[in-house]
Amino acid sequence: MIRHTVVFRLKHPAGSAAECDFLNAACKLAELPGVQKFECLRQTSTKNPYTFGLSMEFADRIAYEGYNDHPEHTRFVRERWLPEVAEFMEIDYAHWQPDVS
């Protein structure tokens, strides 16, 4: 399992129609093949500059790469993410199993 997460801050004013439109478009990524447990999250901590987060899971590396290369995802990145996101940090996780030997 791979958990793909990204935290970000938009260029749009907080509470604006443009902010809402972006988030609605981002939520449509949940419909792409392989995406599981999709969440769009609002940041509540003051410990970093990000205001939103996206989190989703994939069964395996193949499913994750399929999502990453999907034409709707690459179009979203090109047409919405790059022009509208001010800053972000992406982290992808896989389950870690402790060595029990």
Secondary-structure map:
Elements (H helix, E strand, L loop, with lengths): L1 E9 L6 H11 L8 E7 L9 E7 L2 H9 L1 H14 E10 L7
In words, what does this structure look like?
The structure is a single chain. Helices cover 34% and strands 33% of the residues. It is an alpha+beta fold and 101 residues long. The mean pLDDT is 96. The protein has one domain (2-94): Alpha-Beta Plaits. The two termini are 23 Å apart. It has a four-stranded antiparallel beta sheet with strand order 2-3-1-4. The chain has helices spanning 17-27, 61-69, 71-84; strands at residues 2-10, 36-42, 52-58, 85-94. The protein is built from three helices and four strands; from the N terminus they run E-H-E-E-H-H-E.
